[in-house]
């Protein structure tokens, strides 16, 4: 009995000691405040495990291609649905399966429609919140450097910088914003068409574009060029590094090229519009980012120029087929500002210098136009 009482007293003493120790504090080294303090044995470690701190690495968002499994319902729509007509509509509607129709009807059990059609829609996939501040800081620094080095460039008409989150919808009000996302994706989805020829119903996905991690700027081109928005994707390091300058120069050079094409009235230049814009804008972008990456010491970018060009050529060899020539043309000037001014002064001289005036486009069949599409799967990874 005596031994038992002694053990009880000893236990009480140990508990009191633990309590006193845990309540002690030091102005030099405050004690941890997490579950790591819980003592599960009568022996004490010399040092308790340190509490993990949030990452302070300013480049933590620079990752290799980051595959992200997404669910259709979590995607954020930007822009309205785009309808097709003629041969394109016939080709896409021929891809509709019985499963697609079943899926659409399950989503819209009481919907009345005349027929179903495939439409195109752009969705944004949210990035993780832990990267938000570093991405915002990077984007601000990139643009500040551009306006310093190329002061003549027109500042982008951006009203808001938006870090996309699930549940948002920008299918109506989307212009004049910059959206930061993990990635973007173009889907071909099923919609109903009612008696008034309007699209109706909750969409059901049919086809998906394979290449989805990309940044882009969209404008009204010939109609409302000042209505624009920018999407910057951080799903892989090459895209987020190149994206800001690529889209900024893409916007400003497209304004100049639009005026030139309309004044020239050259139908061929209208056909080549996108190729010309990408050639000059990517050339300027790669040259300026090669400067900036050295100034701020972006890690893992020693082969930036070649990697950037190859990445674009592999993505779309037609649209980006003259990026290398565009970069070489920009590099022939002493500064990026000089090259930019030279293009502003004479877009036609640029077109001739890189050989686009002699280039001929061949007409694509419907199957070639949609060659990068694959059947939608309920759970897919973006690559």
Descriptors:
2 domains; single chain; 383 residues; globular; alpha+beta; four-stranded mixed beta sheet
Describe the overall structure.
This protein has 2 domains: 52 residues, no CATH class; 226 residues, no CATH class. The chain is globular and about 65 Å long. With 383 residues, it is an alpha+beta fold. The N terminus is likely disordered.
**Mean pLDDT across all amino acids:** 79
Number of helices: 12
Measured as a percent range, the helix fraction is 40-55%
Global structural class: alpha+beta
List the helices and strands and how they pair.
Layout: H1 2-23, E1 69-70, E2 76-82, H2 86-93, H3 98-107, E3 115-125, H4 132-149, E4 160-163, E5 177-181, E6 183-193, E7 199-209, E8 216-219, E9 228-233, H5 237-264, H6 267-271, H7 273-296, H8 304-315, H9 323-331, H10 336-345, H11 347-353, H12 366-369, E10 373-375, E11 380-381
Parallel strand pairs: 4-5, 5-9
Antiparallel strand pairs: 1-11, 2-3, 3-6, 6-7, 7-10, 8-9
């Amino acid at each position: 009995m005596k031994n038992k009482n002694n053990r009880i007293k000893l236990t009480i003493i140990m508990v009191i000691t633990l309590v006193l120790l845990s309540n002690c504090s030091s102005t030099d080294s405050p004690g941890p405040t997490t579950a790591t303090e819980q003592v599960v044995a009568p022996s004490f470690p010399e040092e308790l495990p340190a509490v993990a701190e949030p990452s302070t690495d300013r480049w933590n968002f620079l990752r290799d291609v980051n595959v992200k499994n997404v669910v259709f319902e979590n995607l954020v729509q930007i822009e309205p649905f785009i309808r097709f007509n003629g041969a394109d509509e016939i080709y896409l509607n021929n891809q509709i399966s019985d499963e697609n129709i079943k899926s659409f009807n399950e989503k819209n059990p009481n919907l009345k429609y005349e027929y179903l059609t495939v439409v195109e829609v752009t969705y944004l996939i949210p990035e993780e919140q832990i990267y938000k501040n570093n991405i915002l800081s990077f984007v601000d620094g990139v643009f500040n450097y551009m306006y310093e080095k190329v002061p003549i460039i027109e500042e982008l008409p951006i009203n808001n910088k938006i870090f996309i989150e699930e549940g948002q919808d920008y299918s109506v009000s989307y212009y004049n914003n910059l959206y930061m996302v993990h990635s973007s994706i173009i889907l071909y989805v099923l919609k109903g068409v009612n008696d008034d020829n309007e699209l109706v119903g909750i969409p059901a996905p049919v086809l998906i574009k394979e290449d989805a991690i990309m940044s882009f700027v969209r404008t009204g081109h010939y109609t409302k060029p000042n209505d624009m928005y920018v999407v910057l994707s951080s799903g892989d390091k090459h895209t987020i590094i190149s994206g800001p300058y690529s889209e900024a120069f893409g916007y400003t050079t497209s304004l100049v090229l639009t005026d030139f094409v309309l004044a020239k009235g050259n139908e061929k230049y209208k056909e080549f519009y996108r190729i010309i814009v990408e050639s000059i804008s990517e050339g300027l972008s790669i040259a300026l980012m090669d400067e900036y990456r050295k100034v701020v010491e972006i890690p893992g970018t020693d082969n930036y120029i070649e990697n950037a060009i190859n990445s674009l050529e592999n993505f779309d060899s037609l649209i980006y087929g003259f990026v290398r020539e565009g970069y070489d043309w920009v590099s022939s000037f002493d500064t990026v500002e000089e090259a930019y001014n030279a293009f502003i002064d004479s877009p036609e001289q640029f077109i001739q210098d890189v050989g686009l005036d002699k280039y001929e486009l061949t007409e694509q069949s419907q199957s070639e136009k949609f060659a990068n599409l694959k059947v939608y799967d309920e759970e897919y990874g973006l690559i």
